[in-house]
Design goal:
The chain has 569 residues and is of the alpha/beta class. It has 4 domains: 125 residues, Udp-n-acetylmuramoylalanyl-d-glutamate--2,6- Diaminopimelate Ligase, Chain: A, domain 1 (3-Layer(aba) Sandwich), CATH 3.40.1390; 133 residues, Beta-Lactamase (2-Layer Sandwich); 144 residues, Reverse transcriptase/Diguanylate cyclase domain (Alpha-Beta Plaits, 2-Layer Sandwich), CATH 3.30.70; 93 residues, Arc Repressor Mutant, subunit A. The chain contains 19 helices and 15 strands. The strands form 3 sheets. Strands 1-5-4-3-2 form a 5-stranded mixed β-sheet, sandwiched between helices. A 5-stranded antiparallel β-sheet has the order 7-6-10-9-8. A hairpin with a 4-residue loop joins strand 6 and strand 7. Helix 16 packs across helix 17 and helix 16 packs across helix 18.
Length: 569
C-alpha cells in the first residue's frame, strides 16, 4: 500500500493537520508534493500530486477558488493542504463545497508547520512506498515490452495498453490523424459514438486541438484537457509519442472508465516509448518497401529486367497485373527543376514534400475514378502506369481517356501550391514489358508539345507523332528545302512586311478551315480573316480546298517549328 492522505493526517509528528472536506477520498495515494502559488500551474500538475498552498493566489476570487479545486480533481491530484491562518482564517466555503462534490480532500496546515516541512515528510514517506509502486510499474513495463518484442502490431500494443490503464486509448500521428485505437469494455461513452474513427483521418475537432498547448511536443508528461461530447465531458490525458527530438504522434487516454492512478500514468509514458519505437520500425519498413518498389519500376521502365517470368512476378508484388493492358503517363512540373546543386537543403525538402503530395493526390484521384494505376516518383517526374480496359484498342486512346487525364490535370493544378503541370501520355501496350516504350513516348510527348502552336495541358504522343517522325532521321537540309517550298514564302513576306500571315494560316488549319472560329481565336473581324486567306492563296499560289496542298502546308508548319527549336528557323 502506498502513502495516502489518511496516513499523512494520522502521523504523530503532524498532529495539528485537520481534514475539512473530501473525507470520502482520504485513501488517495500521494505520489509527490508541490508547493503552488502560481495560478498558471494547472498544466504541470500530475495525478497523485499533493498540492500545498498558502492561499495567496486564491484570496478574494471565489471563481478561481472553485476552478482550482475542479482542475486538481480532474487531474487526479491526491489532495490540497492549505496554510491557515495566514491569508485566510479558514478554507473558503466554495472550496469546501467543490471539494466535497468532487471528493478531493482538503486539510489545513497550522502556522507552526511550514510547507517545506510537510513537503519533506511527504517525500520521505513516498520514497518508502516506492518499492511497491516500482513493482507494479515493472509489471506494466514487462507486459508492454513483451508485447513489443513479440512483433505485435500497433493495434495489439494499443489494446494491451488499454488493459493496463483501464481506459480507452487513441493514437494519432503528428498531424493528429488516426493511427489506432482501442475501447474499454466498461466505457460508458464509447469512442465510436463520439468520433469518426477512420484511419489516417482527423479524429478531434478544431476547438479541442486549439485548446492544446502549441509547444506540447516539448512536454515530458501528459497534458490534461476536457473533451466535450454529447454524452458529457470526458477528461483526456495527451502524451507525446517521441524519440529523441522527433515527435511521431500522440497518445490520448480517454479517462471515461476511472481516473488514472499514478502507476497507470507511468504505464502511459512507457506505452508512448514502445509506440515510438514501433512507429520508427514501421516507417523504416515502409521506406524499404518504397525503395524496392521504386527500384523495380525503374528497372522495368529502363528495360533492365531480362526475365519475363521475373518481371511478371515482381509486377504482381508491386500492384501491376501482368496480363492487363497499360499506358504510361508522365506528370511534370517546372518546380522540380529547382532541385539543383545550388538549392538549399530547406528548398529541396520542400520540393520533396510537394512531390510526395502530388503522388498522393494522383493515387487518390485514380482510386476515386476506380481506375487501376501505380503511381510513383522518379527523378523530377511523377509516373502513372494506368490500367486500360481490355476491350479498348491500344491505338487512338485519346477519345476514351481524355476526360480521365484532363480531370487528373485539373486536380493537380488545383493543389495549394498551384504548380504548373504538364502531362504526357504514351501509346498503350499489351504487355508490361512494353511499358518502357510507352514511358519514352510519354516523355517525348511533353518535349514535342513545345513545338506546337498551342501547347496543351495533356499531350498525347500519337497526336504529336509527326513531329517525332520529322525530327528524327530526316536530314536538316531536306527539312529546310520542304519548308521553303511550302510555307517559306509566307514567312519571308511576314518578315519583310511585319505581318502575321503564317500565324493566320496555322490557326486557320487548326480550326479546320473555319473562318469564324479562326477569326474569333485571332481576335479579328471575319472580313479581315477572309482578306488574309485570299492573300495567303495569292502568295502561295495554291488551292486551300485541295487535301494534298493542305497536307503539304501542315507538314511545312511542323517543320518550321522543328527548325526553330534547333535554332535553324
Amino acid at each position: 500500500m502506498g502513502f495516502t492522505i489518511k496516513a499523512l493526517l494520522s502521523m504523530s509528528e503532524l498532529p495539528d493537520l485537520k481534514l475539512v472536506s473530501g473525507a470520502k477520498s482520504v485513501n488517495n495515494l500521494i505520489r509527490n508534493a508541490c508547493v503552488v502559488d502560481c495560478p498558471d500551474a494547472f498544466d504541470w500538475m500530475q495525478p497523485g500530486d499533493l498540492i500545498l498552498t498558502s492561499g495567496y493566489i486564491l484570496q478574494d476570487d471565489p471563481q478561481l477558488q472553485r476552478r482550482f479545486v475542479r482542475e486538481l480533481s480532474e487531474t487526479a491530484c491526491a489532495g490540497i493542504g492549505v496554510k491557515v491562518p495566514k491569508y485566510w482564517d479558514a478554507v473558503p466555503d466554495v472550496m469546501i463545497e467543490e471539494s466535497n462534490r468532487r471528493s478531493l480532500p482538503i486539510f489545513t496546515i497550522p502556522l507552526h508547520n511550514t510547507l517545506n516541512e510537510i513537503q519533506t515528510i511527504v517525500f520521505n514517506n513516498v520514497n518508502t512506498a516506492q518499492d511497491t509502486l516500482l513493482q507494479k510499474y515493472f509489471k506494466i513495463h514487462n507486459r508492454l515490452m513483451a508485447c513489443s518484442l513479440s512483433e505485435q502490431t500497433l493495434d495489439s500494443i494499443v489494446q494491451c495498453t488499454v488493459e493496463l490503464i483501464n481506459n480507452p486509448l487513441i493514437v494519432v500521428n503528428s498531424h493528429w490523424n488516426l493511427l489506432a485505437y482501442a475501447d474499454h469494455k466498461d466505457n460508458k461513452i464509447p469512442l465510436s459514438k463520439v468520433f469518426t474513427l477512420a484511419k489516417n483521418k482527423p479524429v478531434f475537432d478544431k476547438s479541442f486541438l486549439d485548446s492544446i498547448p502549441k509547444d506540447i511536443e516539448d512536454f515530458k508528461k501528459a497534458v490534461k484537457r476536457t473533451c466535450i461530447t454529447p454524452y458529457g465531458p470526458v477528461i483526456c490525458r495527451i502524451h507525446p509519442v517521441r524519440a529523441d527530438t522527433t515527435v511521431y504522434g500522440y497518445l490520448i487516454a480517454w479517462e471515461s472508465v476511472r481516473k488514472l492512478r499514478s502507476v497507470e500514468c507511468m504505464g502511459l509514458e512507457q506505452a508512448a516509448i514502445i509506440i515510438a519505437l514501433e512507429r520508427i520500425k514501421t516507417m523504416r519498413v515502409e521506406e524499404s518497401r518504397r525503395i524496392m518498389r521504386q527500384d523495380f519500376f525503374t528497372d522495368l521502365l529502363e528495360g533492365r529486367i531480362e526475365s519475363t517470368a521475373s518481371a511478371y512476378s515482381l509486377a504482381e508484388m508491386n500492384g501491376l497485373s501482368a496480363g492487363r493492358h497499360y499506358v504510361c503517363a508522365v506528370i511534370r512540373t517546372n518546380k522540380f527543376g529547382d532541385k539543383s546543386s545550388q538549392a538549399s537543403r530547406f528548398d529541396i525538402m520542400g520540393l520533396d514534400r510537394l512531390q510526395r503530395k502530388l503522388v498522393k493526390m494522383c493515387e487518390d484521384y485514380f482510386k476515386f475514378s476506380r481506375v487501376g494505376a501505380c503511381v510513383f516518383s522518379r527523378s523530377n517526374n511523377i509516373i502513372a502506369l494506368v490500367q486500360l480496359d481490355d476491350a479498348d484498342e491500344l491505338s487512338n486512346l485519346e477519345p476514351q481517356y481524355q476526360d480521365l487525364f484532363h480531370g487528373l490535370y485539373n486536380t493537380l493544378a488545383g493543389a495549394p501550391d498551384r504548380p504548373e503541370i504538364v502531362i504526357g501520355v504514351g501509346c498503350g501496350c499489351a504487355d508490361i514489358i512494353d511499358l518502357k516504350k510507352s514511358f519514352v513516348e510519354a516523355q517525348e510527348a511533353i518535349r514535342l508539345s513545345g513545338l506546337t502552336a498551342n501547347p496543351e495541358s495533356v499531350n498525347w504522343f500519337e497526336k504529336l507523332m509527326v513531329y517525332n517522325f520529322l525530327g528524327s532521321g530526316v536530314p536538316k537540309d531536306v527539312l529546310r528545302e520542304f519548308y521553303e517550298s511550302s510555307v517559306g514564302p509566307l514567312a519571308e513576306f511576314d518578315r519583310e512586311n511585319n505581318t502575321n500571315l503564317l500565324e493566320t494560316l496555322e490557326v486557320y488549319l487548326l480550326e479546320n478551315r473555319s473562318i469564324s472560329a479562326a477569326a474569333q481565336r485571332l481576335y479579328i473581324h471575319r472580313n479581315t480573316m477572309n482578306y488574309r486567306i485570299n492573300k495567303i492563296k495569292q502568295l502561295l499560289n495554291t488551292d486551300l480546298d485541295d487535301s494534298e496542298n493542305l497536307l503539304k502546308l501542315q507538314i511545312g508548319i511542323r517543320i518550321m517549328r522543328i527548325l526553330s527549336s534547333l535554332g535553324k528557323g
